[in-house]
Amino acid sequence: MSFDVFLQDFSDTPADRSESVGRVLRPLFDADGWNVVTADGSAAVFGASDVPLDGLMFNHIAGELAWDVIFDAAVAGDWVIMPVGGPVCIVTEQQADSIPEELQDVGLVLVRSGKDLRHAATADA
Prior knowledge:
This protein is of the alpha+beta class. The protein has four helices and seven strands.
């Protein structure tokens, strides 16, 4: 099953996260730079070369460790995680105040790990 998982913030002027998020992703990119590769799987990454880097999309997520990479990128970027069809996932309690009211209707979950994120994103799958 392929999930689309978006990472972004809701500020009026999103900051460039190239350095902080790059430190998480760069060591894991395959030779083409389109996928992060982990010990048990991989995930396709879109937007990592954008300038400024102000959000990402992951899909074709395989293995448990890829969820850790998504979580770690969200923490590094101070981004909210939005799995399509799932609840909005926040990585800090402070992020709850930034979520637009219309998105709060789909649910809001504080995640503390890739495992928490995977569970929140796939609970109804």
